[in-house]
Amino acid sequence: MSGGHTRDARMAAPDGRGADPRRIAALGTAVLEANWRTTHTVPAPGLYPHQWSWDSSFIAVGLRRVSPRRAGQEMDALFAGQWDDGRLPQIVFDPHRDQDYAPGASFWQSTSIPGAPRHAETAGLVQPPNHAWAVWKIHQADPAESRRRSFLERSYPKLVRWHGYLTGRRDRRGSGLACIVHPWESGTDNSPLWDDVMARIPDDCRTPLNRPDLQHADAGERPSQKEYGKYFWMAERYRDHSCDDEDRDYPFLMEDPLFNTLLAVSELALADIAAELGLPAGVHRERAQRTAEALEQLYVPELGCYSARDAITGAVVRKATVNGLMPLLLPGQAHADELIATLNGPRFLGGGA
Amino acid sequence: MTVITVQEQHLPGASLEEKFDHALEWGFGGIELRSAGNLEFEARLPELRRARAAGVVMPTACVEMSHFIGAFDDELRKDAVVQLKSQLSVMAEIGGRGVMTPASYGMFSRRLPPFVPPRTEEQDTAVLVEALAHLGGHAASEGVELYLEPLNRYEDHMVNRLADGVRLLKFAGQDAVKLAPDTYHMNIEESDPAEALQEAADYIGHVQASDSNRLEPGAGHIDWALFGATLKSIGYQGTVALESRLSGPAAEVLPRVPSLLGRYL
Known about the structure:
Chain A has helices at about 1-10, 20-35, 55-65, 70-80, 105-110, 130-140, 145-150, 150-165, 195-200, 225-240, 255-275, 280-295, 335-345; strands at about 50, 90, 180, 255, 300, 305, 310. With about 350 residues, chain A is mostly helical. Chain B is of the alpha/beta class.
């Protein structure tokens, strides 16, 4: 698309600074439109050629400024991949692109897994629950269009079932926090939070590792073959247990502060959605409050931020990461001052990076 | 903010000045003229000069003819070129941007009997490139532009999608000839209207807006938010002209259009 490249070159400032906001919006619109695939948006045409769960919510939040209709369609496409147990899958696959990403549809064989959708191929893992948050923002961008499409009416029950899955089957400790079963479920795949638990994960997966990602990115920018061996080992085990969350000895169960903060934020959005639909909203505010209170188990005073807890050993990881700052998104946050101090401190913004 | 114009036949008033007053009142920024054959547009010059002097904004003209540059008949084709040359000069004189034309309209459709045109695609291309090259040179010398409008498959067999138009423009190699996408035709022909506009961005000189059912924007199901965001994204600098049928009396339905499109442009 040579015309597009010419335009890109004209519009971008050499170092990105001082660029006209309208030009940035123009370029952003062009990227969103270039990555639209009839019903959804791909995060990257080569490297990520399917629909990713939490990516689509973020994409839809931006897309609502371009086309609220498309933003709604984006969420509809993801919801069409919902499982019977309520989970929204990490990936909804484009069957024509299965050579370009692994583990793909042929790995998961989801249509053979009880409870998975019959008419879509999906992964069995999930991603952080930013969906209700996105749905409410999309509605607000154009309430008339949203009502015309019955967007809230159709989305609300699906979101309720999604949150029900997370607070039910994924609360493996009964702590009031949802567990992730794979680094990919955190959205922060390579976070130092997972280093300790990953050290005890075997890397001898059975699936041959073809690494289609290396066609689209430099090896230096991608996980190592050994790391991939562990990712696939876990995915194989989870898949081979039908993704049923009943595998007693599954070795990776982490309570992530980012994941659970978004759950609480989305629960608050569900309250707004319910109120808009004339349904009881109080139950959602109570659930959000319970999740926010449970998050306190993850606060680490010495670090001045939250962290992840290994739900198997009970140990809280002693590392300061961006995941641990996310509770700032919650209204009336108990440690807001400490979080802001940490954010501005030498570990983060004050670090002179 | 992009200027939204409305075609003159929709506006009440005995003169262009009166029509313009109504257009402004309804939220439009100008009038798109209709340029008829038989050198009738040139014959309107006194009227057009007067309107221009009175401040009437007339950026573009859209042909109102019975035969076009892609006509099968040699004489009709030549006459269409003669008419457009004259119309381009008229627009130059009144300070306009240009004139828009389809390759042809209502002459032939591959989807309707007799299905097979009397001329090959190569011959179609040759005829059109010749006309565009000739008119492009004339437009450039007058400081105006010619806009080629793709039509849906039922109204023309030669230029249906923006990509078809871009292909012809590349052959003709004339900077003063550009594309004029019309949202109604795009809704029928393009897989993704937004992507089509992005791909053709460098060639777009004028835009016409009409809803999916050929009624005024807002009366159908076109995604106007997407349309506006895409025009902004490609840095479109021209005007948007309303060419459509109306879902009700003009005074009732037309004033809604600038506020609808203006939200997004």
